[in-house]
Task: inverse folding
């Protein structure tokens, strides 16, 4: 039985004080959650939010990590820096990082291995564009991202995969729960072939295509979907809590 995981991705939103106020509003609403609850916050918010999360059941995540332990990488954040403030999860390879900051499957793999070696749990994002979807390349694209991004990992159950249908984010098109379930099923099958079926059965795979309070119950009822990577809805306490409490 895979334990669901709901992770908020604040992106470039919330100052430290705003972030503290938000988690203080969320915490009392999710005390009876039957899933892992994570907030992935901007690097500069981490110290303050880490302190605010003490005594709650909410875990702290980061939005990125560099693949080097330290060095001349201006503007980057190392795993050790994250660990010092109690960070447990880190998003790697988000579609926005791939689109705007030239992230590749190679750098995703390097960052993932670094995170694992440091004891962080990577939330590795994969997904296809609208053009790739409409030209029937979904499975080809996802298989490549899996094979290149997850190679050399010893224990695949120590990561989380987030499926981001980029084609359904901000395009006016929507993925049905059945489409999401089918694609995540393909991801699990591909991981099983690359590693082993029993490992794939234990792997948690989130849906990252605009899950919200209105559609979370339908999505979370799907057999293959183990949670959500939540963007906009994670910025409002009632909305995020409604997703976390999808089974209530």
Result:
């Amino acid at each position: 039985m895979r334990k669901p995981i709901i992770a908020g991705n604040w992106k470039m939103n919330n100052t430290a004080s705003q972030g503290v106020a938000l988690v203080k509003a969320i915490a009392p609403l999710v005390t009876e959650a039957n899933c892992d609850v994570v907030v992935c916050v901007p690097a500069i918010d981490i110290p303050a939010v880490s302190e605010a999360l003490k005594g709650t059941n909410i875990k702290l995540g980061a939005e990125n990590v560099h693949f080097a332990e330290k060095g001349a990488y201006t503007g980057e954040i190392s795993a050790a820096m994250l660990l010092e403030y109690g960070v447990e999860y880190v998003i790697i390879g988000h579609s926005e990082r791939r689109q705007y900051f030239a992230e590749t499957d190679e750098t995703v793999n390097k960052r993932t291995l670094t995170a694992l070696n440091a004891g962080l749990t990577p939330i590795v994002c994969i997904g296809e564009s609208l053009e790739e979807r409409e030209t029937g390349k979904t499975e080809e694209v996802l298989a490549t991202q899996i094979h290149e991004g997850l190679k050399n990992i010893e224990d695949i159950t120590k990561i989380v995969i987030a499926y981001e249908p980029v084609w359904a984010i901000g395009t006016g098109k929507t993925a049905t729960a059945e489409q999401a379930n089918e694609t995540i099923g393909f991801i699990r099958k591909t991981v099983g072939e690359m590693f082993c079926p029993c490992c794939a059965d234990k792997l948690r795979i989130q849906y990252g295509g605009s899950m919200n309070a209105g559609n979370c119950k339908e999505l979370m009822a799907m057999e293959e979907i183990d949670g959500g990577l939540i963007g906009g809805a994670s910025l409002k306490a009632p909305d995020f809590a409604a997703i976390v409490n999808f089974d209530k």
In short: The radius of gyration is 17 Å.
